[in-house]
Design goal:
With about 550 residues, the chain is an alpha+beta fold. The chain has 18 helices and 20 strands.
Length: about 550
């Protein structure tokens, strides 16, 4: 039986070869994988792929190291800040009281509340959001804080505002509070007790306001001071603003009205207002004349209603300096009582045989009694005023020299004289206490304020005080409106002419009470009234004294 020949296979047939064209199959190079649909990956490709994969792994590992190790603390803190919020807790602002414990300014939740009675707004001030300058000047002030903007609120802002606290609040990704706890307790602001009596300031304001409306004054200011301690018991300035309106800032129309008001409701006239004093400086110059030996108390000068001197610019034409009235023969007490201008022209600048003080001595004694400089009261924006002098005139009048007529006018408180009501209440207190020039105090205190002693003999003070008392008791005294039964008053009036036309005047009333044992001095100015108006500042003072006798009799005991 013949042997079967075995089949010989050149290579295995893969499934993908089934689909190849059989007629071309003999010509394929099998070693080069021709005729195959799929080819195996080369070793070089696998190596390259491994290198790329390893590089990616190294890169991610490096980034992970960078985030976890190098910047781990930073991102941990950042993560915590995203979930934990530190929130400031505003501390309540301190309370401002009057001398009797009446609240004048206090905090209710986020609002600052003020007493509704009139008369104290410029003294108390108000709060508001800080200006850029306030933010830059304080490291503890942020744009959301309320800070003092005027008066006590501004001057003592750091004391009143206290120290804000803070709390930590945990929130989720949606901003919902999960937990909170106190981180830093706050410190409430300090309280303050002012020396003023809210009742007196309110009533004083009312009488000044009524006088302004009825007799067409543009404004007014009044202040009363304890002559022994320096405590200010009343201080008011008309017109004023409403502190609550400014603090809330909602009533833009009213606020704009304040800003555009020509009568300046933001001005504390007692502290910052500068006014021509007129005759209220005559008591000071009377003492100067006595001390310098210019005249004796009993020596008389004749007032025929004016004095006249040769005019160097117009020979043959005299310069006339008028008195407000012909008073006849007057001594010092009488001259103070009726406010004779001629008397003070002569003792101030000299006339014929009567020698005068001269402008240098007038300025020296004005400064001695605290005029032309700040009083030292613990309030911002205090005005210093001006005492006229040859140097001042040269500077302000294009080199024009000083003349005798300038001295005459200065001796009756005219020309370039400017004072504040606060300076005048202090000067009058010095007269009442025989020379104790005390620093006014705005805070209630059992300790008397600092003072200087004015070097004038006690008997000279007595002469001047008698003249001021006669101004109240004489039937033709200029302060006779203050001759009231409730208390003995010594006073001096002043009518200061304003401008070239002199159509407007400032009406002044200054004085002290009781006359026998002085406790309080006062000063009141009514601003820019008609010179034809015969009703002056003393009407408001009289009304206040009569009200005090009934409602606050403790001030007369």
């Amino acid at each position: 039986m013949p042997k079967k020949k075995s089949k010989k296979f050149l290579t295995d047939i893969d499934p993908d070869q089934i689909f190849l064209d059989s007629s071309n199959l003999p010509s394929f190079d099998v070693d080069m994988f021709e005729g195959r649909i799929e080819k195996p990956i080369a070793k070089t490709a696998l190596t390259l792929l491994g290198i790329i994969f390893a590089a990616i792994v190294i890169m991610f590992m490096g980034r992970a190291y960078f985030l976890q190790i190098t910047w781990g603390g930073y991102y941990a803190d950042r993560s915590a800040s995203n979930s934990l919020k530190r929130i400031s807790i505003a501390s309540p602002r301190g309370i401002i009281y009057d001398r009797n414990g009446v609240k004048l300014a206090w905090s209710e939740l986020a609002d600052r509340t003020y007493v509704t009675q009139s008369g104290l707004s410029q003294l108390i001030g108000y709060v508001g959001y800080p200006s850029d300058a306030q933010i830059k000047s304080s490291t503890s002030t942020s744009p959301e804080d309320l800070v003092g903007k005027d008066g006590i609120e501004e001057k003592y802002n750091d004391w009143l505002r206290g120290v804000d606290g803070s709390k930590i609040v945990e929130v989720d990704a949606r901003g919902n509070v999960q937990s909170e706890y106190l981180y830093e307790p706050g410190k409430p602001g300090g309280d303050m007790y002012l020396s003023v009596d809210e009742r007196l300031s309110e009533k004083f304001y009312e009488y000044i306001e009524n006088l302004s409306h009825e007799y067409n004054f543009k404004g007014g200011a009044g202040v009363i001071m304890n002559v022994q301690t320096g405590e200010i018991i009343a201080m008011t300035s008309y017109p004023e603003y409403e502190p609550g309106v400014l603090s809330k800032g909602d009533d833009r129309a009213l606020i704009n009205g304040y800003i555009n008001d020509n009568n300046r409701p933001f001005l504390n006239r007692n502290v910052s207002g500068l006014y021509t004093p007129g005759s209220i400086v005559k008591p000071i110059f009377a003492m100067a004349a006595l001390k310098e030996g210019v005249i004796t108390p009993e020596q008389k000068i004749f007032s025929k209603g004016y004095i006249s001197i040769p005019n160097p610019f117009f020979p043959g034409k005299e310069s006339i300096f008028k008195d407000w009235k012909a008073h006849g023969w007057v001594d010092m007490r009488r001259a103070l009582s009726v406010s004779s201008d001629v008397y003070f022209y002569e003792i101030g600048g000299g006339f014929q045989d009567q020698k005068g003080l001269g402008i240098d001595k007038l300025g020296e004694y004005a400064r001695m009694f605290g005029l032309g400089t700040t009083t030292g009261i613990a309030l911002n924006k205090e005005g210093d005023g001006n005492i006229p002098s040859p140097a001042w005139k040269l500077k302000n009048f294009n080199g024009d020299p000083w003349r005798i007529g300038d001295t005459y006018h200065s001796a009756i408180g005219q020309y370039g004289f400017l004072v504040t009501p606060l300076q005048m209440v202090r000067a009058v207190a010095a007269i009442a206490t025989d020379g104790k020039l005390i620093t006014p105090q705005i805070f209630k205190s059992s300790v008397p304020a600092e003072y200087n002693i004015i070097n004038v003999p006690q008997e000279d003070f007595e002469i001047v005080k008698q003249g001021m008392r006669e101004g109240v008791t004489d039937s033709d005294g200029t302060a006779r409106a203050l001759n009231v039964p409730q208390v003995t008053v010594a006073a001096k009036t002043g009518t200061a002419e304003l401008g070239v036309s002199k159509a407007l005047v400032n009406s002044w009333g200054v004085g002290f009470f009781p006359y026998e044992a002085p406790r309080y001095s006062f000063a009141l100015v009514m601003e820019k009234g008609s010179r034809e108006n015969t009703v002056g500042a003393n009407l408001a003072i009289r009304n206040l004294i009569e009200w005090m006798a009934i409602n606050t009799p403790e001030y007369f005991k």
